[in-house]
Amino acid sequence: MAIQFDYDKLNQDRCVKGREVMAHVKEMCADPMGINTHFLMELLEKNKDTAFGREHHFSEIKTIEDYQKMVPVGVYDNFAPYIERMTRGEKNMLTADEVVHYNITSGTTGVPKRIPLTQKAMANYMYYGESLIYGLLDELPDDRWKRGRRIMLMECPDTIGHVEDGTTCDILSFKLNTQHKKYYPIFNTSPMEAAFPRGDYETRYIHALFALKDRNASCLAFTFSSHCLEFLRYLRKTWPMLCDDIENGCVNKAYELPDDIRASLDAQLTPDPERAAELRTIFKEKKQFVPYVWPNMTNVNSVATGSFRTYAERLINDYMGPDIHWYNIGLCASEGMYSVPEALDSQYSMFIPDNMFYELLPVETEDDLSTICTLDQVEVGKEYELVCTTLSGLYRYRQADVVRIVGFKDRMPLMEFVCRKGNVIEMFAEKTSEKHLIDAVDGMAHELSLDVVDFSVYPNMEAGTPRYDVLLELANSDEVTVPVETMAEVLTKYLYKANILYYNHVMSKDLAPLKLQLLQDQTNVLYKEMLAYKGWPVAQIKPVHIIRNETQRKFFFGLVKS
To answer: Residue 206: what are its φ and ψ, rounded to 5°?
Structure first.
């Protein structure tokens, strides 16, 4: 039986809640440090009788200075023994509150971590992460965003994992989507067969087919802007086939699917020659096709800061145009919500002082913990590593995320995500960051009019003289006429400009000139598919801009064009 929804009432309730969250965030801007101090003291009082609280004398802490003296700055390994005992059912280890879920990381830096999440922390994910956007959208002059569903390529297993005591343990979005599985088709264009695949079959095609069929879609929702760019590039490449399938009202026979999946999908499709004809005209005539394919398209919800900014710029320039709004979802990780967007179309976000306690370690002081600042001590223009205390039992936790303070909204610092600390190449202390590499590749691509899908750089210490091996994937690379030698020359010019230390080490012959090679088409898609096959959640897979391990090295070098 189909679930009935009153969309007008639903959107009205969303807007009311969204305005409430906006007002609350604005109120916190008046006294972020006072609220953050109160948050910390209340949290310590609540957890003073936990194992961690007793060991670190929470009951004796009266000030922030006391807290900083009695509790050391830590990383995940410092908390892992407590978490291990918690997963076996022991209570009052890190938090007095019941842990209702363990967020599992994607494991990009080693063994996956299990981050505890209390009910209050989960509620705050929803309060700040799900509701704020509706308050911001409600301020727009038109209400097109209310008229359609989301295009979202999130894929979830039918069941999720558990730890020994029975508590769920998986990606948080898996838990939330699985809990509300029956509502998924109401809010999203993708059918259940793509969102909750039952077996190993092609899902990107299914997502694309149903997204194009739905003329009223109003939101593109992707974890990272790189995923959104990849999806729209796929539409541009495969639209003739997709339009034929929409016209015929059936799944393409070229795709291998279980009989029951194919039958179910075909039952949800009806021949639509009018929509197919409309789409063919749009794709033939419009470069920035998104607002024409989906006239109600109002906003993109995605990460677009740090290394993802370049993808967002390409999306705007090549696919969307300037009139679709961007909801940059702020800094969010397995440990919690770190920030919320300042406004639509802003790269900047605001701290949430009643959700976690913030300390900020100036990057320029390296690991000198005596220089740690609180929210009232930060300086505009400086970069800081976040050190946070969460609702779920992580105390003075080094997240390794680096942010830049860009200004203030009232007394609330505004920040911009910069990068993950340590995500640099240091073969001879040249400190080439991911941003340096992105700026150089973007400069080369612009000068030579190349459509760069993505790139990876391997710090090659095995070469006669150490060098950077740059692996570049271009769209339709067989049609590119620019010589690889020219690409390498122009890329080198921009890399010298981005990082003078790299230039100095090449000039002194510590480093050999970079070597550039082209990758086969679809290499980066295949990398994601490989990790997905191994059980990694697709939505959490980030581009590999710096090759760090042997698995990555073998994969990408194995797909270099001959």
So the answer is: -65, -45
Instruction: List pLDDT tens digits, range 4-36.
Output: 567 788 888 889 999 999 999 999 999 999 999
List 162's β-bridge partners, or say none: 168
DSSP tag of 353: T
What's the CA gap between 243 and 280, in Å, rounded? 7
The token pair at 502 is 């790299």
Secondary element (H or E) of residue 505: helix 500-507
Q: Which residues contact 57 (CB under 8 A, 6 or more apart)?
A: 70
How would you class 43 by CB atoms within 10 Å of its CB: exposed for 0-12, middle for 13-18, buried for 19 or more? buried
Is the pTM higher than 0.85? The answer reads yes
> Residues 68-76: contacts with CB within 8 Å, 24+ apart?
68/359, 68/372, 68/396, 71/395, 71/396, 72/396, 73/369, 73/372, 73/387, 73/396, 73/398, 74/394, 74/395, 74/396, 74/397, 74/398, 75/397, 75/398, 76/113, 76/397
Structure tokens at 410: 């009232």
Q: Find tokens 């059918």 and name the residue.
A: 191
Measuring CA to CA, which residue among 126, 81, 87 is closest to residue 104?
87
332 DSSP β-pair partners: 337
d(CA 151, CA 208): 9
Torsion of CA 48, 53, 56, 59, to 10 degrees: 0
- DSSP letters along 181-202, please? GGGHHHHBSS-HHHHS--SS--
Spatial distance between the Cα atoms of 318 and 312, rounded to a whole number of angstroms? 10
What confidence tens digit (pLDDT) does each residue in 294-353 have?
999 999 999 888 888 889 999 999 999 999 999 988 888 888 889 999 999 998 999 999
Among 382, 350, 399, residue whose Cα is nearest residue 32: 350
The residue written with tokens 């620019």 in the block is 482
Cα–Cα distance measured from residue 102 to residue 525, given in angstroms and rounded to the nearest whole number: 29
Report the C-alpha gap between 186 and 2 in whole angstroms. Answer: 10
pLDDT tens-digit readout, 61-100:
999 999 999 999 999 999 999 999 999 999 999 999 999 9
What burial letters (b/e) apply to 331-348, b meaning 16+ CB within 10 Å?
A: bbebbbbbbbbbebebbb
Tokens of 445: 């691509």
- Rounded CA gap, 453 and 491, in Å? 15
To 10 degrees, the CA torsion angle through 185, 187, 190, 194? -60
**According to the model, what pLDDT value does residue 90 have?**
95
| Segment among 3-7, 119-123, 394-398, 435-439 with least mean pLDDT | 3-7
Closest C-alpha among 237, 228, 386, 399 to residue 308: 228
The answer to whether 318 touches 285, Cβ cutoff 8 Å, is no
437/446 Cα distance (integer angstroms): 14
